[in-house]
Specification:
145 residues; mainly alpha; Four Helix Bundle (Hemerythrin (Met), subunit A); 6 helices; electron transfer activity; signal; heme; electron transport
Amino acid sequence: MKSLIAAALCALGCAALPVHAADAFAKPKEAVEYREGAFNIMSVHMKRLAAMAKGDAPYDAARAESSAQLIATLSTLPWEAFIPGTVGDLKSDPIRNADNFRQLADKFEQAAKQLPASAGSIGTLRGQLNTVGAACKSCHESYRK
């Protein structure tokens, strides 16, 4: 848990730095690790929220809001790490399809930004979690192997 929190704080700190994608990563591998790290942390918190929404874990508004806030913040991070030399493991090239990719990323970010406000009740959380999940799925269908 401590390493997860440290990774999230590191990612949040990195997000505050005004850098260009080409300057941010010395090697393509670093870009891939960066975006995978952001996606992995979001996945952990999505699973926590999903467990509450399904009734597999007790609903805890404070914990739900904390996870939702992390997802909302991290949702802005991975996109800068889709740079040339890093897309060989994807089914489609987000760099060549930049307009479509950006639309899907924006859809996800907007849905994720609504999560913290929805975390106050299990009913609203369920609805917004479905919206975020659908945004994830639409990008996965186009780009993830």
